C-alpha cells in the first residue's frame, strides 16, 4: 500500500501488521497457495480458507557498522538529519543478480526521478540525469552503479525493515452467501488538500464527506461493515474470508481467485481518511498471542480461531481501503511497476523516491541492493523500510516474518554529498 498500506514493532510478525503499504504493489510472478472449494458440486459454497504458509526462518548475517554520529533529534527530512559519506560502493557485497534487478528498476524510476521534487532535500532532478542517461544503455550493472553513484549514510544509518507481499484470496464477481464486499471508491468521499487553504499545511490532506453543509470524517471500518456504504460505493467483487480481505487491505493490493480459476487483480484506489492502527501491536499488548503466534500467519490463525473477538479487534483499525480493478501489473507509489525482491517502500522525506539503497541487515534475505519505489502509511522516519517480495508462497513466508535490523546506505549521484556538505570543489547549487 500501503498496506498495506501504512506500517514498527521490534518483533518480526507484528512489524508486518504495522507496515502495510498505502500504494499499489506488483509481484514478479506466481500465485499464493489456496485451498480448493469444499465441494465441487456446490459452487456457491464458501471455499476453505487459505492454507497456512509457515514463516520462513531467517539466515543470520552480520550487518556493516554505521559511521558513529550524534543523531539530530526531531529531524523531519534527510537533509535535516544529516548526510555523511558511506563506504566505497565497490566494497559493498552486491551480487550480480541484485545489481541487474536494481538497474532494471532504476531505469523504470528514472523518468520520475528527473522531474519529481525531492522532499528529502538531498537531490535535484538534474542530479539524476547523467546516471539515468547512462542507465539506458548500461550492460554491466555492477559497473554502472560503481561508476555513477556514491553511498551516503542518512542520520545514524540504523535501519529497520519489515516486509510486504501481494496476497491472493478466494473471491467472486457476484454476491455469494458468506462473502463480504470488496468496495471501490465511494461517490461521496471527498479529499481536501489543506495546502490550498494555508501555506503552513502544505503537503497535508484529509478525507471525509459532506453532511448537512458540514465536512465530517468518513465512515470508519465498523460503520462500513455494518452497511454504511449501501448506495454510496460500487462493489467490484466479493471476498470469501473477511480476515483475508482485511490483510488484503493491509497489503494494499492483491488478487481475487474466482471459482472458475480466473483471477481479478485489485489495487489501492483510496482510503477513508481514518488513522491506521496495527492490530498486531494491540494483540501483543493484550497477551493474546502465545509462543509461535507472533508472525502474520499466527495472527491470521488467531483471528480465524476467535471470529467474534477477531472481528472486534480488526474494527479497532478504523482505516478502510477502497480498491479498483486493475488490468496488468499493479503499480507502486510512483505510478510505475514494482518488483518482488527489488522494490522497497520508504519515507520520501528521507529517501528520494526512485533512488537505490543498500541494506546491510542481520538476515541475508533482506541484505542487498533495493530501489525505493513505494511508500507506506507507517513507513515513516529515517532508515525505515518495507521490503516487497512479490506473490506466492515464498513471498508470503518471507514477508510474514520479516523483521530485520542493520545499516542503510543510500546511493546518490556522485558529487551530491560534496554539494550538500559544502566540500571544496563541490558543484554550485
Automatic annotation (TrEMBL):
The record ties this protein, via CDD domains, to:
mlta_B (cd14668), mltA_like_LT_A (cd14485)
InterPro entries cross-referenced by the UniProt entry:
3D_dom, MltA, MltA_B, RlpA-like_sf
In which organism is this protein found?
Answer: Sphingomonas qilianensis
This chain's protein is named peptidoglycan lytic exotransglycosylase
Q: Where is this region: Disordered?
A: 29-48
Which reactions does this protein catalyse?
Exolytic cleavage of the (1->4)-beta-glycosidic linkage between N-acetylmuramic acid (MurNAc) and N-acetylglucosamine (GlcNAc) residues in peptidoglycan, from either the reducing or the non-reducing ends of the peptidoglycan chains, with concomitant formation of a 1,6-anhydrobond in the MurNAc residue
Read off the Gene3D superfamilies from this record.
Barwin-like endoglucanases, RlpA-like domain
List the keywords (alphabetical). Cell wall biogenesis/degradation, Lyase
Say which domain of life the source belongs to: Bacteria
Broad EC category: lyase
Q: What residue stretches are annotated with the Lytic transglycosylase MltA domain?
A: 168-324
Q: Which EC number(s) does UniProt give? A: 4.2.2.n1
* Any coiled-coil regions, as ranges: none
The protein's matches in Pfam families, at most eight in alphabetical order, are given as: 3D, MltA
Amino acid at each position: 500500500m500501503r498496506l498495506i498500506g501504512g506500517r514498527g514493532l521490534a518483533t518480526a510478525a507484528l512489524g508486518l501488521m504495522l507496515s502495510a503499504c498505502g500504494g499499489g504493489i506488483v509481484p514478479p510472478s506466481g500465485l499464493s497457495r489456496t485451498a480448493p472449494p469444499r465441494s465441487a458440486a456446490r459452487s456457491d459454497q464458501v471455499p476453505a480458507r487459505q492454507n497456512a504458509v509457515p514463516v520462513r526462518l531467517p539466515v543470520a548475517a552480520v550487518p556493516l557498522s554505521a559511521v558513529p554520529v550524534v543523531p539530530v533529534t526531531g529531524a523531519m527530512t534527510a537533509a535535516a538529519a544529516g548526510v555523511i559519506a558511506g563506504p566505497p560502493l565497490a566494497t559493498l557485497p552486491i551480487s550480480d543478480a541484485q545489481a541487474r534487478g536494481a538497474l532494471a528498476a532504476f531505469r523504470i524510476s528514472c523518468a520520475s526521478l528527473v522531474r519529481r521534487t525531492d522532499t528529502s532535500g538531498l537531490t535535484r532532478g538534474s542530479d539524476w540525469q547523467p546516471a539515468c542517461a547512462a542507465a539506458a544503455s548500461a550492460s554491466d550493472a555492477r559497473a554502472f552503479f560503481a561508476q555513477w553513484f556514491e553511498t551516503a549514510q542518512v542520520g545514524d544509518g540504523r535501519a529497520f525493515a519489515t516486509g510486504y507481499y501481494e496476497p491472493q484470496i478466494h473471491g467472486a464477481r457476484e454476491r455469494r452467501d458468506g462473502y463480504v464486499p470488496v468496495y471501490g471508491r465511494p461517490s461521496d468521499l471527498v479529499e481536501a488538500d489543506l495546502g490550498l487553504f494555508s501555506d503552513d499545511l502544505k503537503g497535508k490532506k484529509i478525507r471525509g464527506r459532506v453532511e448537512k453543509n458540514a465536512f465530517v470524517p468518513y465512515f470508519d471500518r465498523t460503520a462500513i461493515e455494518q452497511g454504511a456504504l449501501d448506495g454510496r460505493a460500487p462493489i467490484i467483487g466479493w471476498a470469501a474470508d473477511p480476515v483475508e480481505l482485511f490483510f488484503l487491505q493491509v497489503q494494499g493490493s492483491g488478487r481475487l481467485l474466482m471459482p472458475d480459476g480466473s483471477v481479478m487483480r485489485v489495487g489501492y484506489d483510496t482510503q477513508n481518511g481514518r488513522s491506521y492502527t496495527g492490530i498486531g501491536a494491540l494483540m501483543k499488548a493484550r497477551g493474546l498471542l502465545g509462543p509461535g503466534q507472533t508472525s502474520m500467519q499466527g495472527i491470521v490463525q488467531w483471528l480465524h480461531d476467535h471470529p467474534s473477538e477477531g472481528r472486534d479487534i480488526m474494527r479497532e483499525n478504523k482505516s478502510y481501503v477502497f480498491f479498483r480493478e486493475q488490468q496488468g501489473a499493479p503499480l507502486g507509489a510512483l505510478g510505475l511497476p514494482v518488483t518482488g525482491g527489488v522494490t522497497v517502500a520508504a519515507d520520501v522525506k528521507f529517501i528520494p523516491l526512485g533512488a537505490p539503497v543498500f541494506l546491510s541487515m542481520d538476515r541475508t534475505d533482506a541484505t542487498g541492493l533495493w530501489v525505493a519505489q513505494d511508500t507506506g502509511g507507517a513507513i515513516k522516519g529515517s532508515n525505515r523500510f518495507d521490503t516487497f517480495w512479490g506473490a506466492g508462497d515464498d513471498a508470503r513466508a518471507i514477508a510474514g516474518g520479516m523483521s530485520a535490523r542493520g545499516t542503510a546506505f543510500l546511493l546518490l549521484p556522485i558529487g551530491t554529498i560534496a554539494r550538500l556538505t559544502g566540500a571544496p570543489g563541490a558543484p554550485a547549487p
